Amino acid sequence: MPKRKDIKTVLVIGSGPIVIGQAAEFDYAGTQACLALKEEGYKVILVNSNPATIMTDTAIADKVYMEPLTLEYVAKIIRYERPDAILPGIGGQTGLNIAMQLYKKGVLQECQVELLGTSSESIEKAEDREKFKELCEQLGEPILESIIAHTIEEGVEAANKIGYPVVLRPAFTLGGTGGGFADDDNELREIIKHALKLSPVGQVLVEKSIKGYKEIEYEVIRDSNDTAITVCNMENLDPVGVHTGDSIVVAPSQTLTNKEYQMLRDSALKIIRALKIEGGCNVQFALDPHSFQYYLIEVNPRVSRSSALASKASVYPIARVSAKIAVGMRLDEIKLANTPASFEPTLDYIVTKIARFPFDKFVLASNKLSTQMKATGEVMSVGRTFEESLLKAVRSLEIGVCHIYMKKFDSIETEELMEYIKDGRDDRIYAVAELIRRNVDLGLIYNTTKIDMFFLEKIKHIIKMENKLKDNAENIEILKKAKKMGFSDKYIGEIWNKTEEEILNQDFKIFHAEDVSFGVAQISAMGRTELDKVQERIEPKLEQMMGEKQIQMIFVMLTDILNESTYLIYRGADASQLVAAAYNCEPSDQGIMLENVVSRKKQLIPALINTRSEERRVGKEC
Fold this sequence. Notes:
Elements: E1 9-13, H1 24-39, E2 43-47, E3 63-65, H2 71-81, E4 85-87, H3 92-104, H4 107-110, E5 114-115, H5 120-127, H6 129-139, E6 146-149, H7 152-162, E7 166-170, E8 180-182, H8 185-198, E9 204-208, E10 214-222, E11 228-236, E12 249-251, H9 258-275, E13 279-287, E14 294-300, H10 305-314, H11 318-326, E15 335-336, E16 339-340, E17 350-356, E18 377-383, H12 386-396, H13 414-420, H14 428-437, H15 442-449, H16 453-471, H17 476-485, H18 489-496, H19 500-514, E19 518-524, H20 528-549, E20 552-553, E21 556-560, E22 565-571, H21 575-583, H22 590-598, H23 604-610, E23 620-621
Parallel strand pairs: 1-2, 1-4, 2-3, 4-5, 21-23
Antiparallel strand pairs: 6-9, 7-8, 7-9, 10-11, 10-13, 11-12, 12-17, 13-14, 15-16, 17-18, 19-22, 20-22, 21-22
Helix pairs in contact: 1-10, 1-11, 5-6, 7-8, 13-14, 14-16, 16-17, 18-19, 20-21
């Protein structure tokens, strides 16, 4: 159905201060939602306590309140502004909790304010551990043996009944706050005391531990017409036991069979329909690596931290679509680059997310990872292969490494390293790589870490390429293969005893050897809608030119932070003249492109080298 005309003003609740588990990704989602509502003609009132966000910019919402995100203050704003509706699912767990408090205290009913998107009943079913358990049992969805506890003694009794080890999951908390694994009564008493204090409803789920299972996430979205799609599925490199916000995450999943993928997809869609969630939803599963047995871990009935990753990975704006669904629009009515939002995205590339930890600032803190999130940031990279994507992500962390190699592990004995990797840690991937360099059996590493053999084999491919580079110094063909795999100029230089600049010069030689011309159009930074209009205007002309001159459109959307521009890149004979004609801009030859673009974006070089003549890369965000 078309958007609702009975609503004029919408209040959007932000996520508040940046904390572990809830940071810039919710600013990204909130900004998208506000702009989407304004695009449809609604007046947007935003309340958020954090001025260091984009969403609190006066251009994003019609009116901005920078007030504490508490029941008292938000209630005052609602009574003063009298909005027609409130959108709670964009501000993370903070926004959702405040909306539920407003509903339970009768503030929404008093001011006749409607809760948009997912209903309060659905939120309760998804967030309340006991109600969620009952729903899963009704649907026949497998869940782990668990017992709800409201006191320490109830928790101890539940754990003894289920059998140790157990995992504790407080209700209505963010990033697994207050949760953790317990192997005995003493550990449980220590954890549950803290967990009960942090849960707003004083409720903790005591659940059977399944450490070592694969952890899989599905990002799904549904509208009021019951149309539901899977936007993206993601796989944690680390097994169950490490919070998904701390784990290395790969999208799309790499180790699932088609049967496993479809089985979990069907389950995720069944859950979102049963909960009657309208908008984005994150569903987490644990999958036995040796059978088709799976368990439903958790459902987030809101735009989550993973939603931002899924949006970037799939180029599907989940928050924007969720906001439009909330005001009554159907998925087939929402257009994304001239395609209905009801079409499921398809990824022909691999995205890797690696968390960034603050242990360099908190040197006394333990770097062991568990169900309680510790990361304060993350990086995302895009590559044609897992190896390329992983190495790009490692370099982006800015922790003083340019490869999956850390010098500190050189002096540690193999037995000590094997003991070190038993637990999830912020630097475990580097320790695993070092063990593979020492020819430790992959089966032994798998048994210790439960990291899937697929990922261990991929890391081994990287180590093999390291050895090829060592054995074939200054070999151009090996250099090409290493660059294609994602090796950095700096690390290749370390292997060949050369500077990063000398290796970069070798890259330029590869370009000249290919004898390929590039055309680059540099346009001002613009939103998706404006860019779509530009594409509609110029693409027919370019298609004609491509047919006549046999040029290839790479069309890499490259947002340059330095000058806030987007580069549209074409490859082939006479490409620069054709691009200049189509975009009404000055021609750029290969040298100018390398000077203006690649000097700031060195990683673009291997991307262009790897582009084969039969490929047409459209709309990729780098």
